[in-house]
Every structure is written in C-alpha cells, then in structure tokens.
Amino acid sequence: MKYQIINELGAFYLLLPKAVNDALVANDRVKYFFTLLQLAKNSADDPENDHPDLKKERLICNINNTSFDTVIKQTTKDEMNNYKIPELSLILENIKSNIKEMLIPLEISGKVSIDDNAKFINYKNRFENLAALQHDLNNLSSLMINQIISANRDGSDSLHILVMDLHKELNNLQSIISNESIGGAKVYAIQEQDRDLINAFMSGINKTSLLKFDHEGLGTTATRSGGSLIIQNDIGATDAHVLVIKIENSTVTMTYTDVHMQRLMFFKSLFENFAIEWQEIVSKNSNFQDKGVYHMCIGIYEAKDVADLKNYLNYLGSRIVFLIDWNRARKRLRNFVNKNDCLDILKWAADNNYGHMAFLRMGGDQLVYDTIESMGKNFIKFGQQFDEVLGRENAIDFLKFVIKTSSTGLLGGKSESLIRNEIRAELTNYFQSAYHDMLDLASRHATLVLEIATCVRDGVIGIRSTESKELLEKNAIRAKKWETKADLLMNEMRFKTKKSVETAAFQEILHFSDDAADALEESAFLLPLVPNDVPSTLHASLQELAELVIQGSREYLKAIENAKYIQNSTSREEIEDFLEAVDNVFMLEHRADDALRNTKVIIMKETNDNKQIHILSEITNNIETASDGLMKASLELRDYVLDELMAK
Known about the structure:
Layout: H1 3-8, H2 16-45, H3 55-60, H4 71-74, E1 76-77, E2 83-84, H5 88-110, H6 114-131, H7 142-149, H8 159-176, E3 181-182, E4 185-187, H9 194-208, E5 220-225, E6 228-233, E7 242-248, E8 251-258, H10 261-269, E9 277-278, E10 282-285, E11 293-302, H11 306-319, H12 326-333, H13 339-351, H14 356-361, H15 365-374, H16 386-390, H17 392-411, H18 416-461, H19 468-499, H20 505-526, H21 536-563, H22 572-606, H23 610-645
Parallel strand pairs: 4-5
Antiparallel strand pairs: 1-2, 3-4, 5-6, 6-7, 7-8, 8-11, 9-11, 10-11
Helix pairs in contact: 2-5, 2-8, 5-6, 5-8, 9-11, 12-13, 13-17, 15-18, 17-18, 18-19, 18-20, 18-21, 19-20, 20-23, 21-22, 21-23, 22-23
C-alpha cells in the first residue's frame, strides 16, 4: 500500500489494515529497544553477572544493525550514577520513529470518527511532550532512563507507558478489522452485497495476473466508506501509481494516478468499448516521490444493470497488469520502431491479453538484438534502422510476434531456447517474405517488358503487310498500355524499397528493367512510320534484332523466377539454373550488339531517305538499349542474390 498517495487522494480508510499490521511490527521493535536500555542499565549496575546481548531478539524484529549487540556489555556507570550507553542517540531515534509508526492507524481512524480523532490528538500530544524531553546522551541519569522505559503508572508518563497504551488501541483496531480475503483482496467492513462486486473485480485481476510473473504489484484492498464500496489496487512499485475505485449503486468512479502521462493515456485507451466519462487530467506536485509531479485522471461509468456493472469491474481488473513496467517495455521497443508504433504495439498486446512482462523477462531489446545478430553480419549494416531494413509494417508485425511468442511461450512452459529459435525463424520468414515480395513485383514488371517486346516483334513482322499501318498503330497503343503499367510497378517498387534499405537493390534492378520497357515502347511507337516496302534483307535483320530482345526478356524473367528459390540451403542445380539464365541474357545482349551493327549497315546500304534512316536507326537503337537494360538488370539481380542473400 502506498500511504502518501492514497492519503493525498483522500482514500485513507483503505490504509487501515496495513497500517495496523505495520504498527504492531513497530511495537515489537520499540519494545526491543526498551529491553535493550533496561538490560544495559542492569549490566552497568551489576557488571559481575552475565547479561544476554539480545541478538536473537534483534533478528526476530528484523533490525539489522549489529552494533546494538554490544550495547549491554559496554554500558558503564560513573560515581554519580550516570550511565554512558553506546549508540544511545540511535536507540532513541529508533524508539521515536517506531512510536510514530504506531500513531498512524489512530490518525487514519481519526479521519473517519470525531471521537477517534480526539483520541489520536491526545496520544500525539503525549508523544510530542515526551519526545521533547532533553537527555544528556553522554551521562544518562536513572530518572532520564525511567522517562523512557518505566512501566510504572504511579509515577509520571513515559515513552514505555505510551507504547503500552498505543498497543492496546492497536489491538482494539485489529479486532474491528476483518482478516477476510475475497479472491485475494483484503477486505474489511464490507456489506454482503459487496462480495459479488469484489469477486467480479478480483476475477478480472486473477484472469491476467500470471502475465506479471514474479513482479510485485496488484495488491488489492476493499472496504466501505459511507454509502460506497471502495476498492484500491497498488498496481506496481512506483509510489504514485495507484487505482482507487468507488462504487455507489450503479456508478463506478475510478481515480488513476501515474507519473508517466503516456501510460495514463494508454490506460484510458484500454476502455474504448465502454462509455466512460473522463474528466480533465490534473497534474499535481508531490513531496513523496523523486520526480515531484504525478498526473491524475478520473473516469465515471454508469452501468446499465448489475450484470453490466460486474462485467465492467471484471474487465477493469483484467487491464491493470498491462500497466506494470509498461514504460520500460515502451523504451525497449523504441529501439526498433517510432514512438507511436511502440504505443500501438503495447495497445495491441493488451487488447489480445499478451503481457509485455514476458518480453522483458526474455531480455527485451536484447532479445531482438540477439535475433538480428543470429541472422548474420549483412542483415543490418552500420547506421541502418530495424524498421528501415524490414519495412515499417513488417517491423511492427515482427515485434508483435516477439511479444506474443514470449508471453504464450513462457506461460506455456516452453524453454527460453525454444522461444528464441521460434523468434529467429519468424525473422527469417519476414526477410524471405520481403525478398519474395520484391521478386514478385520484379517478375510482374519483367512480364510487361516481355509483352512490350512481343508487340515490337509482331510490329516488325507486320511492317510489310498491306494493312500494316492500322495494325502497327494498335500495336503501339498496346505497348503504351503495358509501359504505363510497368511505370506504376516501378513507382510501387520505389515506395517499398524506400521503407526497407535491405531491398533497395531491387530499385536499381527495376530501374534497368524499366529502361528496357521505355525503349521498347518507343520502338513500338515509331514502327507505324516505317513504309511497308522496306527491303527484305533489312526486314529480316530487324526481325532478328526483335527476336533477340524477346529471348532476352524471357531469360530475364526466368532468372527472376529461379531467384525465388535461391536460399542458403538451395541445391546446386537451382543455383546453376539461375546463373545460366543470367548468362543467357548476357550472351543475348552481345548478339543484339552484333545484330544492331549489321542492321545499321543494311540501313545505310538500302535506304536513301534520310527520314527513314533516322526512324529505322531510332527503332534499332531502342531495341538494343532494351537488350542492354535487361542485361544490366540481370547482373544486378545476380550480384544481389550472391552477395547479399546467400551470405546470410
């Protein structure tokens, strides 16, 4: 229980059970110090006899200072009957601090009852009067010792008598407070109708409590104040991190405090399916925690009926575990994706009941770093971000997988080694998926290049037809249609590779492939301008050149399709098929160079019209440019597959 923040919220009635328990522990400690002083005096009065050192009693009271074990033996008395007691200042300090602890339950009780408040003020005044007495710490007289440890009520008041009276009051309070537990919640002074509501809330707590593993938190107390049932949950270890729920009839008012504004907003986002009226967030200064500021929000829910009230309390209880160490999980995820994506991932995890604590137990960000490292040194290059390499959406999905697999795996009893292997396999799949996505897009683009090349080849064949002009114009329209689609694929590739540096090589591959598409479309556009009486030798040479670029397009497409199956474990035959297709594109480009020179010679020999020479030269140059673009694209693909993919 977090005394100071609960007290600030005015929910002090929730503090009484733990305050009484703490006060009874303090009573045991202060009585140890009274006994220590009494035996120290006895030892000085009768140094010849052996006296116990009270070490056993000290350990029972969980007092760790071993110097107290020598106090009794080392106490001395002078000729004026004054006592010199080692550690006296520390002993008196402990006595006073423990008495203050014993006063706290009376202070809490006094905030509820006027009579109890008067009683508390009386005890407080007695303590302050006794604590104000001055003692010579070097020479303590018998009178002074009696003012501390005397239990004789015939004389003046003493700290010991005050402690005895406080102990009696504590016993009375303890008899009032029930030790009953409902679903794990400590309850006292509740009514019969409260039990089902407490059970509903605790059922939600217990439904997800395993997700915190051995982390502290989720301690719950319930009691009555006036006409309201009050439930408090201490969430985690942070002083100002608490939840107080007030239930009056069908109205549930929850007060939530947090030092992290982002976590507070996250908490509010968990209740999107409930019509909660949220009041304005208030930020307050506080003296009881380091940062000095905490934020508070109040949400009011009006239940439709008892069933709806229980359902809401159950859901509310089930959400609290997702707040524990939330900020630490957010910071770990921040190393891989942007801050908004971190919040979305944690929200997704909570909505699907996957606890982030398992992710933290598995190492958090180090778990992901280890997985990346296992992929090989070429997976991420210096200066690259994870979401750049994998792509933002894939990076988010992968981190969700990490949280889900860690949570379900640890809860399901899987070994950490198995969980790590599953995460590594998933990252490999994401990389291969991104790789195949790029290849699929490149394949679609290559198919369009082949379609345009076919248009050019068909156009060249039909030049000498009597209906050539109409057919060639239709052919040019088709080629333009394919080229436009190829441009769209190129733009899509630019967008995808912009998000993933790892696949950026595909932009260069498609750049050369798109050059081929543009050049071929230009040839198809110019073919209707060629007269149908072109010489047969020139016609045959043009057909040869057009046929070579079709073959090159087919081999380029084959290389892309074969690349889909190239992995670390690929067979020698698959690698050979891929390399053979690339080599064929290379050889066909050289043949196209030779065919281009031959065609240019024929053009110059058999054509006298300068206009026709220009048009035919442009057509042939474009066809050869396309062949050159396919070769460059194939070589880029080869280098990527061999240097990047097979190195992993």
